[in-house]
Design a protein that fits this description.
It is a single chain. The protein is an alpha/beta fold and about 325 residues long. It has one domain: TIM Barrel. It has 14 helices and eleven strands. The strands form three sheets. It has a seven-stranded parallel beta sheet. Helix 5 links the parallel strand 2 and strand 3. The radius of gyration is 19 Å and the shape is globular.
Length: about 325
């Protein structure tokens, strides 16, 4: 019997099936590609340059982008790749997925961004969005429904293209809903403008055969039952971030929802940025200690490996994972 691939182990974690050995590991984004590989991350490249490229140059770009994702995964033993197609239209998304599969086969679990729900707006949009929700709620609901319709349509196109062969495995739903103090909307508004659309989107993706990983930073505890509902049909396979800077305690989350959903994250990005090595190691060990109590657990940071994070700190906690995040 051959050993399971990283993709197979990642899927087993998402499905909360028994695993022995080292738990899967991935990062939602790994932006330090220049420091590690001497190459700009694909999502940081200039779209205007793309418009000027010949088709031959575009193919070289796709191949280079695919190699970056694969090389980082190989270097740090990631089981899953979160691809950020640039440009991000459906046709180029398909081409990038196909290029990664061409170069790596079915070794890795592949996901793309698939959220279509309202999220924390930037400062320029916050007042405008708040006023519209108060004064034109029907228009806000219509927009939310339209975004979900469009995302489902794209997912249907991707499923039709790839069929049941290893192509795209999952959707990462990356709309952020929470500040460190709690949700960005009053609960009545959240349940009107976000919750039903999140559930509808999750149901549709699952019915199409995609795995669903829901990401949001901040204090998610007030909306935990919306993110992980009792109805399995509208529940994601995994919850990502589990942000300790937002007061999310891994031990508490494991006790509350580990029987319903796989858990990803909780290693404190703030400590990796500004804390000591001992604090960083402590955060990683706390996540591992309690994560190993969950049927489905994926080791990762509480956000991503973002530009400006010291690479040596990420590599420090990656070594902790490698040595200690092992199921008997």
């Amino acid at each position: 019997m051959t050993d399971p691939t990283p993709r197979q182990r990642f899927i087993a974690a998402l499905e909360r099936r028994p695993l022995t050995g080292r738990v899967p590991h991935f990062e939602l984004v790994f932006f330090l590609t220049m420091e590690v590989l001497g190459k700009v991350h694909p999502s940081h490249r200039n779209y205007h340059q793309w418009l000027q490229m010949t088709e031959h140059e575009r193919e070289l770009h796709r191949t280079d982008a695919a190699r970056i994702y694969i090389d980082i995964a190989q270097r740090y033993d990631h089981s899953a790749l979160f691809l950020h197609p640039n440009p991000g239209d459906t046709a180029e998304t398909i081409r990038l997925i196909e290029k990664v599969r061409e170069l790596s086969g079915d070794r890795y679990f592949l996901m793309i961004h698939g959220d279509a729900t309202y999220s924390i707006p930037n400062g320029k949009r916050m007042e405008e969005m708040s006023l519209q929700m108060a004064e034109e709620p029907d228009a806000v609901e219509a927009q939310a429904a339209k975004w979900v319709d469009q995302s489902i349509q794209r997912a249907e196109q991707l499923r039709e293209h790839f069929g049941n062969t290893p192509g795209l495995d999952g959707m990462a739903l990356c709309s952020d809903y929470c500040f460190n103090s709690g949700p960005f909307l009053p609960m009545s508004w959240f349940d009107r403008f976000v919750t039903p659309y999140l559930h509808r989107l999750t149901r549709a993706y699952k019915e199409l055969g995609f795995y669903v990983i829901k990401h949001t930073d901040g204090n998610i505890m007030p909306i935990l039952d919306r993110l992980v509902p009792e109805d399995e049909a509208i529940r994601p396979h995994a919850l990502h971030s589990l942000d300790p800077q937002g007061g999310v305690d891994m031990a508490d989350v494991v006790d509350r929802i580990a029987d319903k959903v796989a858990l990803c994250g909780n290693v404190n990005c703030g400590l990796l940025q500004t804390g000591t090595e001992e604090q960083s190691i402590g955060s990683a060990r706390y996540s591992i200690k309690h994560g190993l109590r969950a049927p489905g657990y994926v080791f990762c940071t509480s956000n991503c490996v973002y530009t400006g994070m010291p690479l040596d700190r990420y590599e420090l906690i990656q070594r902790v994972w490698h040595n200690e995040a092992i199921r008997p």
